[in-house]
Amino acid sequence: MISRLLFIFLALMVTNSKAIMIQKTYIVHMDRTKIRASIHSQDISKPWFESVLDFISESSTQEQEQEILPPQLLYAYETNMFGFAARLSPKQLESLSLVDGFLSAMPDELLALHTTHTPNFLGLKSGIGLWSAQNLASDVIIGIIDSGIWPEHISFKDSGLSSVPSHWKGICEQGTKFSASNCNKKLIGARTYLKGYEESVAKINLTTDYRSPRDSIGHGTHTASTAAGSMVKNASFYGLASGSAIGIRQSSRIAAYKACWPAGCVTSDILAAMDQAVSDGVDVLSLSLGGFPKPYYVDSIAIASFGAAKNGVFVSCSAGNYGPRPSTVGNSAPWIMTVAASYTDRTFPTKVRLGGGEVFRGSSLYQGRKTGQLPLAYAKSAGANKEAQYCTEHSLDQSLVKGKIVACEKGLNSRTEKGMVVKKAGGAGMILLNSDSQGDELLADPHILPATSLGFSESNIVRNYIQTSRTTPTASISFLGTKYGEPAPAIAAFSSRGPNYFGLDVIKPDVTAPGVNILAAWPAKTSPGLLKSDQRSVVFNIVSGTSMSCPHVSGIAALIKSVHRDWSPAAIKSALMTTAYTLNNKGDPIADTGSNSSSAFATPFAFGSGHVNPENASDPGLVYDISTKDYLNYLCSLNYTDSEIALVSRKTFVCPKNSDLQVGDLNYPSFSVLFDRFIQNSSVTYKRVVTNVGKSESANYVVSVEQPSGVSVSVEPRKLKFKKIGQKLRYSVTFSSIGKRLRVSGSNSFGSLTWVSGGYYKVRSPIAVTWQ
């Protein structure tokens, strides 16, 4: 049966019967059980995908008189999913409907790429607990799908490591300035995926990049060292954030899969990398990339991650950098660990003094002398170009900004590029102004001139001062180095938010982890500000994004995998979620910098279950485990069709007939409850199963509930009595809306359900209620 998506794709195509038919790259999903029995794969001398391509090539040629290029195979997928990526003409795409086992064809898509102090902030201590010598001695392999790696970096030295794990089946590919000798007992494998990128975007520019696993962007090197970099003493960024740089699971082996390039990451390449990584033997997959939310059956990362989880591989993904707008969280399938980003207590403060006497605090990685009290320029006073307020290329008037501090709005170009533009125009400094949506976000950037960022309220004062001052407005910027002890964690404004757009019944993101101003390894030939004109070379760089928080959780998952080799990915995920905390280091609720209110607290739609707590996650007491069948039944509860579910499962799955499946019954470690705002006193009951994984055979748990506003919560039973480790017990939770007031559509209230055992174990699940 032709997927309903295929009809949409065909309807959008226009062909010219007198020309060579244009080909596009498609990811083709097949049913493994049917393709093997297909008449198109009876020639056992050929791989199944060649037989399929031969068939559609012959079928389309017979019906067309114009010249048609044969299908061009890019990749075959046989581990996490079953299918292939190929360049196909519209007629060849249409011919796929005649192939037994064809499920769907999706156009290739371009996705975006989304630590000295953080291990200490996470509570990891040398020689103790998860960082004990015994635990670190076990072999866990983390696969990093990113922009490659700089293999010579000191963070990837293999001193003291044992031989390569016996279950490793991967290789170290040769390519431009990369050979097999670049791998060692730390970096045990490296591969490159570029076919999809070169077909969809552009050929690799060998003057700026490498047709090999070598990293030219820095992103992959940074994420790999964050997850599993070896210890490097006296690391810093020009003296900032000084200390010992070390990966979260520093003895893990790294397998680098380069699927991301300067313009982004193409899904066909990502899928090939994920497929190979699982086949190679990785234990954890880390993907700091993604796009906007979409249904799971058309989400390539979700489909491949399902296959990886089925093979026992834990998949950690970044939530995205599209916050603080709601419902922007990506990588939201329930079998993926979706990670938000938050601040640690380390900052790089600056002081901005206005001519009127006001003093503000900002943030910057610039390390140089402070500026004097200099004139300020902004918008029209910086140039007649309408983009002057954004400080884009050629927008500033040198005669207006020379020797001045220029105030620049964020947006249109990168923050470091704005500084370059100001410096080219003769400016002496720069103040980056936050918009309403950016709130009090204070990101530190490696500027090439004296520059700082300011929060929204301070930025508004600066704007008003410049535009209303009766005298020449002035400002000065001074730089205060590295400071510790700020209230933390706090959710980053850029971190993508829930609710989960295509799965309101599952809270996303799952957890938050350090993702702001993270110091980690950097390629020697890549400037810290990613500017061609910036000739600086650094060993470590400080970067922000959910791309940085994701590898923290990947490393923690590897630590837990070391302790609990028999745990499923869902059990590890449960442990991370139910032990997460929601209070900062001052004992207050975690703040949300995306809000302009100083008293605004983050909700589960910003941080999921809370901030990860590695040591507690290694001994959670109880876990909520989920099987492959459970996930597929969940898709049934979403009213997915058989063909849509088959795209995820890779084979036909028949939903239970006349069942009482409901979306809230997925055995997830959190509760998302939906009420119709027009129906008063409605209720819904969800079921859960918990498994005793604590240290005691006999364990008693009592439930404690923090009820969301406007909702009554009852749990049955209220006590769970376990008699052995591994025992599973069931409970049910009934949520009832109360009150006669009509709720506003989309309004929310939040609470929690916690199973407590003897004051030692606290197994907490957040509750999010939405009135629709």
From TrEMBL:
Major location (coarse): secreted
Domain Peptidase S8/S53: 138-589
Keyword Ligase recorded: no
Residues of the Inhibitor I9 domain: 25-114
SUPFAM superfamilies per the UniProt record, alphabetical: Subtilisin-like
Residues in PA domain copies: 375-458
Subcellular location per the Swiss-Prot or TrEMBL entry: Secreted
This protein's UniProt keywords: Glycoprotein, Hydrolase, Protease, Secreted, Serine protease, Signal
TM stretches of this protein: none
InterPro entries named in the record: PA_domain, Peptidase_S8/S53_dom, Peptidase_S8/S53_dom_sf, Peptidase_S8_Asp-AS, Peptidase_S8_Ser-AS, Peptidase_S8_subtilisin-rel, Peptidases_S8_3, S8pro/Inhibitor_I9
Domain of life according to the entry: Eukaryota
Keyword field contains Cytoplasm: no
Residues at the active site: 146 (charge relay system), 219 (charge relay system), 547 (charge relay system)
Location of the Subtilisin-like protease fibronectin type-III domain: 665-769
Signal peptide start and end residues: 1-19
UniProt record similarity statement: Belongs to the peptidase S8 family.
PANTHER family reported in the protein's UniProt record: PROPROTEIN CONVERTASE SUBTILISIN/KEXIN
Protein name, as recorded: Subtilisin-like protease SBT1.1
